[in-house]
Amino acid sequence: MILLDTNLLVRVTNATDPHCDVARSAIHRMTGGGERLIIVPQNLYEFWAVATRRPGAQPAGQNGLGMTCEQASQWLAFFQRRFMLLPDRNDLSARWHGLVKQLDIRGFRSHDARLVAAMESYGIARLLTFNSEDFKRFAITVVDPAAI
């Protein structure tokens, strides 16, 4: 099992993204090799926020895809058909809180900690992401899609 980071989902849906083909290829190769690709509810929330935010949004670096709610909904349905969606477990909040306290995590990185807490809850050790630097503080194995 490997958890997909939301940045992978965003790139898969955006044909103009320079990493779109790499993301699609990594997913295709992994599923073809029998790998179970996992998403969690947080992936859906994060995807929605990016997908429905307008391009050119401020602050810089927070640009969205400018999808309509209907388009974003269609992608969410696709992800749930294509990947295994694991529900949040009761221990998720406590695991997340433990991680952010232990590692002194602040701001946006707390979202990353929540993904890692979900991974811990299910015993998932690997994360497929383009943002390996964001996860270097955690005791997980980060897999770069370009390496697949």
Order of helices and strands: EHHEHHEHHEE
Total of DSSP H or I helical runs spanning 4+ residues? 6
Overall CATH class = Alpha Beta
Strand order of the largest sheet: 3-2-1-4-5
What oligomerization state is this entry in?
single chain
Distance between the termini: 15 Å
Fill in the CATH topology. Rossmann fold
Provide the residue-averaged pLDDT.
94
Low-confidence stretches: none
CATH architecture: 3-Layer(aba) Sandwich
Characterize the structure shown.
The protein contains six helices and five strands, in the order βααβααβααββ. By secondary structure, it is of the alpha/beta class. It has one domain (2-146): Rossmann fold, CATH 3.40.50. Strands 3-2-1-4-5 form a five-stranded parallel β-sheet. The protein is globular. The two termini are 15 Å apart.
Outline of this structure?
This protein is an alpha/beta fold and 148 residues long. Helix content is 49%, strand content 9%.
SSE blueprint and pairings:
Layout: E1 2-4, H1 6-13, H2 20-32, E2 37-39, H3 41-52, H4 69-82, E3 84-85, H5 92-102, H6 109-122, E4 126-128, E5 141-143
Parallel strand pairs: 1-2, 1-4, 2-3, 4-5
Helix pairs in contact: 1-2, 1-3, 3-4, 5-6
Which structural traits does this protein have?
Rossmann fold; 148 residues; five-stranded parallel sheet
